[in-house]
């Protein structure tokens, strides 16, 4: 059975973690969660309030990481999912995050990323020349990394599927499942 890796950290967006995690399981993929350390992660929820210029943040659910990023052997995984939230702000500084994520892009494996995950990809150089969606406030990061920002719900560029934020998840995951069924079909 193909395995899917989801990388998350504290302050990962709750909905952007749980929706793809459950969709991967529903599709029949063995799904593992990696984080900077093997621990119980604390997620956040972002919401929009009338009259507030940006989103607000509240405490979300928690979930255990199956393994530390240092212990991830990326060749064992068929695809990668990167949720957004504030987690990507510090994940991008982790050398094992960079090692693992670079493998998926170098090997042209399926990758799904959403929202602020783009800021963790930008320093890796993997967005260069690629059509990429992200939370609109991250457009400058995508463009400074040489990517082409697309304000869309499910932007497919080769094996990479990106989206703006959790309201896009049905289209985002539908497009990603389409890529997975072609590139790494689940057994059974």
Question: What does this entry look like structurally?
Answer:
The structure is a single chain. The chain is of the alpha/beta class and 188 residues long. Helix content is 30%, strand content 26%. It has 6 helices and 11 strands. Helix 1 (14-26) links the parallel strand 1 (3-7) and strand 2 (30-35). The longest helix is centred in the last third of the chain and has 15 residues, at 169-183. It is globular. The relative contact order is 0.18. The model has no long low-confidence stretch (mean pLDDT 96).
Topology record:
Blueprint: E1 3-7, H1 14-26, E2 30-35, E3 40-47, E4 56-64, E5 67-68, E6 79-82, H2 87-91, H3 95-106, E7 111-114, H4 117-121, E8 131-132, H5 139-144, E9 148-149, E10 155-157, E11 160-163, H6 169-183
Parallel strand pairs: 1-2, 1-6, 2-5, 6-7, 7-11, 8-9
Antiparallel strand pairs: 3-4, 10-11
